[in-house]
Design goal:
The structure holds 2 protein chains of 2 kinds. Helix content of chain A is about 70%, strand content about 0%. Chain A is mainly α. Chain A is elongated. Classes of the chains: A mainly alpha, B mainly alpha. Chains A and B meet through helix 3 and helix 6 of A and helix 1 of B.
Chain lengths: ~130, ~55
């Protein structure tokens, strides 16, 4: 039986909501769709990796279009969702460039954001019935 | 823990866990894939580290 137009709109809206939730809180998209094990793994691992990056004195890069690499790093940072905004609000992620762990911290923070983007895409695939 | 090697292990652990959960559905498969990924990260880090050793960076 084919889905009606209203059902398709409903499904599309749910998919976008799931993606937004998955971005905002790592693992939320999987938890929402009943994939509790994966959701919990992402919920623990990704914010912990992000927090480790801040602990290692990594920087939350500003969105600076005149510096393309900084802007790309900022987009990757925002990929982690809510933890990014919490860290910003708490004044974390200033980044101490003379610290020996500064670059490691950046790597942790950036990769945590990029991994969460992959998690959002996975949640989208699950919502579309591809997985 | 904040030695270069310690941070390499920590980074490899986080990325391996996330990728294993993403790429595999069965818990046993996740464990095997994650362990292989972790080993690959550590081995690649050590090999690249020694290959770069002669260069004065």
């Amino acid at each position: 039986m084919r889905a009606t137009a209203a059902e398709r709109v409903q499904t599309t809206t749910n998919t976008y909501l799931i993606c937004a939730g998955a971005w905002l809180l790592p693992g939320a998209g999987h938890l929402w769709q009943g994939r509790y094990e994966k959701g919990l793994i992402f919920l623990i691992t990704l914010p912990l990796m992000f927090a480790c990056g801040l602990w290692l004195e990594g920087r939350l890069f500003p969105f600076e279009p005149s510096q393309p690499l900084v802007a790309l790093a900022a987009i990757a940072d925002i990929g982690i969702g809510l933890p990014y905004f919490v860290a910003k609000a708490l004044g974390a992620g200033v980044g101490r460039v003379v610290s020996v762990t500064y670059e490691y911290g950046n790597a942790f923070v950036i990769v945590a954001g990029l991994l969460n983007m992959l998690v959002v895409l996975d949640a989208y695939d699950v919502a579309q019935g591809r997985k | 823990m904040t030695t270069h090697f310690g941070l390499l292990l920590l980074f490899a652990l986080f990325v391996s866990v996330a990728f294993a959960a993403l790429m595999r559905d069965d818990p046993r498969e996740q464990l095997r894939f994650g362990a292989r990924l972790f080993g690959g990260f550590v081995a690649a880090g050590l090999i690249l580290g020694w290959l770069l050793y002669p260069f004065p960076i």
